[in-house]
Amino acid sequence: MDVEHISYIHLTSTSTQKSITFEELKTWLTYYENLLTKTGQQLNWEYEQTGFPYKVMETESSLYLKGTLPQYYSILLDITVTDETAAIKIALPSKATHGDKGKANELAKFLAKKLKGQLQLFNGRIMSF
């Protein structure tokens, strides 16, 4: 699959954890979905369908978020590990929509805040939490 945009959440020495597994990443995604569901319940609106319009699927090497609404295509999540650090890679395929980019940015900021990581956005800018 052709990837057009890539963002990274680097786990640093000040992060809440120094590494992450696919199981932990899936747990964070479930937590994120549950938060959106609770937000929808408080607003009396089925926000989870709009807030997280993806079905989480696992491949051999990554997590694939497949869009469930016509305006969303997909987001890919992967974990990269070097000798010194670990990072969550968030990639948008060439067929990704503007909606995917917005949702990927929201998810990346959420994960970076929770993990106290350093987020490299799609445009190259860095945000530290």
From TrEMBL:
Pfam families: DUF1885. InterPro entries: DUF1885, Rbstp2229-like_sf. This is DUF1885 family protein.
